[in-house]
Each structure stands twice: as C-alpha cells, then as structure tokens.
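[09:14] KT: can someone run the structure on this one? pasting the chain below
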Amino acid sequence: MTIVALRRISRTDEENRLAGEMHDLYQNAPCGYHSTDSAGVLVRINDTELAWLGYARDEVVGRLKFASLVAPRQRRTLARAWAILRERGSVHDVEIELRRKDGSTFPVLLSAVAVTDRDGRVVQNRSSVFDITRRRRAEDEARRYAERLKAMSQRAVEVQEAERRQLARELHDRVGQTLTALNINLNIVKSRAGAVLDPVLAARLDDSLGLVEATFEKIRDVMAELRPAVLDDYGLAAALRWYAGQWGRRTGIAVTVVGDDPQPRLAAALEETLFRCVQEALTNVARHAQARRVAIALESSARGFSTTVTDDGVGFAASAPVDVASGSGFGLMFMRERVESAGGQLRIESAAGRGTRIAVEMRG
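[09:31] RB: done, structure tokens below
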C-alpha cells in the first residue's frame, strides 16, 4: 500500500508540474490566447493579451464580448470570420484591429477553432492572436520607400527628357546651323570656281559636300532619336508611324502601326512614356527576337489607353530573372519602372517559340 501511495503521489506531482508548465506557457506565450462562449463572451484570456489590451482579468472575463474589443470599423470583418468559423469549424489569419482600454488600437492576426457539443452545436471558440504592429510598420515604411522611389524615378525620367530636348535643340541650333552654313560656303566656292577648278580639287569639293550632307542626315537622325519633333507636333500615333518606318528600313523587319491617338490627346509626359516604351520594345526585337514581323497597336477603352508591341520571334520565358552579366532583361525592367512611375501597368506575354507581346496600359 505504501508503494502504491508513493506512486500515486509521484504521478500527482508530475501531473501538477506539467499542469503548471502548461499554465505558464498559456499565460506567458508570445501571442494572445482567449476563449469565448457561444454568445461571444470571454471566458478565458491569457496574461499576454490582457497586457496588450490594458485590462485586468476581472474586467473582461465573464463581462465583455470579444467583439467589443474590436475596433468598430473592423467588426464586419469579425462577423464574416465568425460566419466562416461556424460553417467550417476554423478560421485563420484574419487581420483586424483590437482596441485597448485607453481607446488606442493595434493590428493583429486572429485564428480560431470552434468547440462543439455532441450535437454539433458550437459551445465555445478558442482563439490565438498575434500582434503584427511591427510588421505593419515595416510594410508602411516599405510602402513609403516605394513611393519615394517612384517619385524619384519619375523625376529622373522628367530630367532625362528635358536633357534630350535640350541636346536636340543644341544640335539643331549650333551644329545644324554650322553645317548649313558650311554647305552654302562650299557651294559658293564651287559655283565661283566653275570650269577653271582643278579636277582633283573639284572631286574633293564634291566629296566634302557629300560628307556635309551625310553628317547633316546623321545629326537629324540623332535629333529625332533624342526628341522627335513629330511627337510634339502631331502626337503619339504619327510619331510611332514615323519611327516604325525608320526602324523597319534599318532592320529589314516588317512593321505595322494601327490605331489613333485618343481625343483629347494624352498628356505630354504619358506620350513620352509610351513612345519610349515602344522604342525599347523594338530595340529588344532587333537584338533578340529574330522576328520577321512586328505589329504596334494603339487602343482607347473605357479603362484608359493602351499600346501593344507584338512580334513573331523566338520568345522567351517572361519570368526569367535579369542576367547581370549579359545585360539581358534590363530593358524590360527599366520599361516597367518607367511605366509604373507614370501610373500605368506593363504586361509581358511570351513563350519560347511563340513570340512576345508587350502591352502598356495607362488608366484614363
């Protein structure tokens, strides 16, 4: 009898020790725990959650419904979660805000399981609560940082376009005018010299006139690449038709442009963004696509305005990462950043052997 009694005492001590450990774990867990009855009244809550809320135990247990601790604007969310709980028996990671005794709020993730009786009726809910204040702050900071980056990116684009316009103007006003004057002077020399001009000098003079004209043509091309005057004067559709014609003759790839500008015209900054995106897309086609045909389409809709560039080339894995060593993918990455900084969306559809479609959508 003594041995049996000692075993019982030993078993009781061990059970008490384990019960004490479980109690400590429950009360001091890094997350909140509570249970509510079928009416939603709190019947149990751990010290962690009480500390977050700023209540004493006797102020809430048997007195308050858990819903009363939820911020008013979040109670519909809680009601939907409880409906799911009754239907499925559990609910997970519901983001709500709890209200402290002092009226301040903090964000949490709530998960709960239903306890039912033999007849399947819910008699109790057991819930865990995780304070996500730090995560929310990190998300808010990341969002603010992304907004700053977006603003900086947009500003960089504006500065770049301003520099392009300035450089094109300088080429026109300085180099272009100088070449025009040089061409006039050479033609005057040629006409005055007439038949007395040495044949060798005449050939050199004709070659110089040809070089001046060729240089002037190249400068006009550079000016058009920097800032096509047709974009400012006649709009995006005309600028893309002009550029596509130039690009097609240079690359030997058939290209078509369909569609017109919206009425009224887009803001100048949006036209610039769309034009540069098509430029980049065509550059990628020439470098990588091995395409025979390219189609550029402009389309207006109730949602806004879109420009698409579709080729019949070799395609690629649209989810492929940027290859730093080869530079592959940087053009698309910069295009995406530029479009998003302007408030638009870039969509890329491609597959090996099936060509590529790049769509830029600007909301109206």
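[09:33] KT: thanks! The CA atoms of residues 26 and 112 lie 15 Å apart.
[09:34] RB: yep, looked fine to me
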